[in-house]
Amino acid sequence: MNYFLTEEQQMIRETAARIAREKIAPVALEYDEKEIFPREIVKILGDADLFRVFIPEEYDGLGGGVFEMSLVVEELSRACGGIALAYAGSGLGTIPIILFGTEEQKKKYLPRLASGEILAAFALTEPNAGSDAAAITTSAKPDGDYYILNGTKQWITNGGEAMVYTVICLTDPTRGPRGSSALIVEKGTEGFDFGKKENKMGIRASSTRELVFRDCRVPKENLLGKEGMGFLIAMKTFDQSRPGVAAQAVGIAQGALDKAVEYSRERHQFGKPISSFQGIQFMLADMAIQIEAARTLTYQAARNVDAGEKNVAGISAMAKVMASDVAMKVTTDAVQIFGGYGYMKEYPVEKMMRDAKITQIYEGTNQIQREIIALNLIKESMRKKK
Question: Do both 166 and 238 map to the same domain?
Fold first, then answer.
């Protein structure tokens, strides 16, 4: 479909697609098998100015937004969802600085993030606080010009690789979620350490680690927004980042469809290519329909965010749910089309199926997203009756 991209957006997409095709696809299976973090590819993305696309011009960015970031994530994920996550995860960690950072914080961090010199990460989840984000216990107690940070964050994308972490913590435990705040914590800060690198089912080229804080002294100037805004910052960040997860899912699904179509033309049974069988044709057609519908919703959600729409939580959640469910369905069907070969690690679609699963889980499970969607519908209905 023609999504009426501007000339600049088309160039962004083509640049990301070229890097995915030439640099990522040839190493995707190896990086997955060996759990290699893609440092060399991160540098290539930085040299191509792709980290700049969603950062404001005044901080050395190209002045784009979530839509441009989603274009990049989609194309990279078409080759490898795990490698793409180094880029997407840094975007997630950068968004709260763009939204809530002071001028000094933005000048300090955004130019380096825009160049790809450093990566960012976002830290909310804890061992006992996943979908129930309000249940966090990591604390930050004031001590003069510092906060003393203690606690553990779990399953943090880019953990150990990022230099800048947005950490949601409690500055006033007596107030529950309203007592949470957001701090920028730099790698190398005394008292800040990392747990083991997680051994994951999918996205294995992405680094996922614990963050451990033991009497970590964080300057008060690193507070994002105001004390008590932590939960709000987290939710506003997810409203803007979920189209990026949807784009990752769309990219993974599209990559799986590409491989399935190609294989169906090459694989012969009963004396002819399996692409000639109606059963296979119908599967391919349904996969294409589902992907295009998910892409359309994803792009619209991203454009709504960039247009400054006040309530984007609902459409962002819809995009994330639809695209991730499509990715899981399409990659499963791709494995089926490959048959026994699809189950083998030397063929690409089993990896895509493993990578797709996480998109239904992180940045809010799809069950939580459906709650968000329903609550927005109910609120809108109540508003219309007033």
Answer: no
